[in-house]
Amino acid sequence: MVENRPIATFVSHLVILLGIALVAFPIWVTFVAASHTELRVNQVPMPLVPGDQFWVNLKAAFTEGVGNAKEQSIGIMLFNSMVMALMIAVGKIAISLLSAFAIVYFRFPFRMGFFWMIFITLMLPVEVRILPTFEVVADFGMLNNYFGLSIPLIASATATFMFRQVFLTVPDEMLEAARIDGAGPMRFFKDILVPLSRTNIAALFVILFIYGWNQYLWPLLVTTDKDMYTIVMGIKQMLEAAEESPEWHLIMMTTLLAMLPPVIVVVTMQKLFVRGLTETEK
Amino acid sequence: MLKRVHFKPSVLPYLLVAPQIFVTIVFFIWPAGQALFQSVLVQDPFGLSTKFVWLDNFVALFKDSRYLDTFGRTIFFSFSVAALSMVSALALAAMADRVVRFATTYRTLLIWPYAVAPIVAGALWMFMFDPTLGIIAYMLDGFGYEWNHRLNGGQAMLLVIIAAAWKQVSYNFLFFLAGMQAIPKSMYEAAAIDGAGPARRFWTITFPLISPTTFFLLVINVVYAFFETFGIIHAITKGGPGNATEILVFKVYNDGFIGLDLGGSAAQSVILMFIVIALTVIQFRYIERRVEY
Predict the structure, then answer these.
(1) Where are the domains of chain B?
(2) B291 by DSSP, 3-state: which?
(3) Three-state DSSP state, B41
């Protein structure tokens, strides 16, 4: 603070609080809707203070299901989302660590060719190659399973670049020392490089978990079997059903459940999250 | 780029890059090649024969006024989302940079929308603006303004812009705040001694010094609005009413999966690919060197 201006400081706090209120308002409305009976939510105007049906609705969402999604349970959808998010995050980190290691620590023909090939993936988001990628996955028989959901998304140029940067800052003496002690490449990788990049791995994991959990277009294409639906897709089904039977109290409960895991990850691992964001610029 | 000390040449490096390269070729490069290939073909309605037609698919696209409208709409949508979310984030960051107390708490309360899935964000805003039930639609009605984004294209567009911008505010906020905190305090002190008030200091010191961040964020936000807002639009409007909120990515999906126009959809994919490549080049050429974090 350069000078003491109590009024300006007060105004700053006020503006931020107003901003927070605006940002949080949709969630508040969701929470309120999830805590009332169907009858009350469908009455205009909607209430703005929470009701007492929160736990009842939570139980109903898990046991009865919602709208079109009646047949499949929310528990299964949450489980599918979790598996997909973890597979994408762990898969991306694993293959990126390995390829960054190869590119930084080995000299071999086509090294730069591989590097550029990985770089190109940056320019090919799922959205621009929807149909042909779908065909490839269908040919591999990977529709309606966890591999089809995650593997086509796990190539990662940003993660590879990030690990490359990290490895480049590791002093050469480390490698020399490891070699004198008779450590082979994989030993060096496992005992020195991976431990040294621990924080980067954690930061990246936070970002990638959110990325994986929130995938929508891709699961929408490759899953037709209700048992493979993710929670994010389930919400879409419910919104469609809402036009006929507006069970908004349950839909909003499911919406809360769908955003809870990634939000908890961001809030509890805030430092890692900010670090991951600025490092990968994603 | 490369270490001075290496491991001995062997097959090991090939094995190490193999998984990444396999995924890249099979799920990225091959399908992209397919898209390029299909974009110069026309298939008959029964899928029995295909014909090579040079660039006819592209010519047809650019002659199609509906496609050109979609193009213009996407640009309008992207820049509106970028402007709305960046201006709000800049204001919040400027205020957060001033206050010392509660700074961390404020940050926590502002960053979480980043974690919300686009489709979930869509569901939230759709519910609040629901013409019959929504709380905001009700309030607007109280002011004598009739809200129905299911019928009114302009309102539908406004709603998807707000929902998309809402989700991006946290990202912009974090980067603006980081940019502002990197500015040395002595500059502000010198300006204050010369009699510049907070507003003047903001416009003559903060704003110019964070311009690299602003430019970087502009590119990122445009990319976001182009490619990552599919879920929001699919949830709220499905591109409607009419085509009022149909953006390019949505049209690729619609024409390819719903309309099954393979050549046309592939040609659109190829155009999108060029847009991504252009944006990536801008990002790497002009930004990487000037912005430091």
Answers:
(1) 60-287
(2) coil
(3) strand
**Is residue B126 within 8 angstroms of chain A, CB to CB?**
yes
**Separation of alpha carbons A29 and B19, rounded Å:** 45
Cβ within 8 Å of residue B151, ≥6 positions away:
B241
Largest CA distance in chain B: 79
pLDDT mean over B276-284: 82
Alpha helices in A169-245 (DSSP H): 172-180, 185-188, 194-196, 198-213, 217-222, 231-241
Contacts across the A-B interface (CB distance below 8 Å): 290
- The confidence score (pLDDT) of residue B46 equals 63
The answer as to CATH 1.10.3720.10 being correct for domain B60-287 is yes
Q: Which residues on B lie below 8 Å from A133 (Cβ)? A: 27-28, 31
Match 């252009």 to its residue by tokens: B278
- DSSP state for residue B244 in the 8-state scheme: T
| Cβ within 8 Å of B, A 78-97 | 94-96
Pick from B245, B80, B230: which is nearest to B149 by CA? B245
DSSP state of A153: G
**B277 close to A (CB below 8 A):** yes
How far off is chain B from A46, nearest CA to CA, in Å?
6
Report d(CA A66, CA B8) in Å as an integer. Answer: 60
Asked whether the beta carbons of residue A20 and residue B106 sit closer than 8 angstroms, the reply is yes
pLDDT at B89: 93
Q: Give residue B255's region: left, alpha or beta (phi > 0; psi -120 to 50).
A: alpha
Closest listed residue to residue B100, CA positions, set B181, B179, B202:
B181
pTM listed for this prediction: 0.87
On the question of pLDDT at B144 being above 50, the answer is: yes
Tens of pLDDT along A39-59?
777 777 777 778 777 888 787
Residue A251's H or E segment, with its range, is helix A248-268
Indicate yes or no: CB of A136 within 8 angstroms of CB of B124: no
In angstroms, how far is the first alpha carbon of chain A from the final one? 31
| Contact yes or no for A241/A69 (Cβ under 8 A) | yes
Residue ranges of the alpha helices (H) in A43-128? 54-63, 74-105, 111-120
d(CA B21, CA B14): 9
Residues written for chain B: 293
For B185-227, what is each residue's pLDDT tens digit? 888 889 889 888 888 888 988 898 888 889 888 988 998 898 8
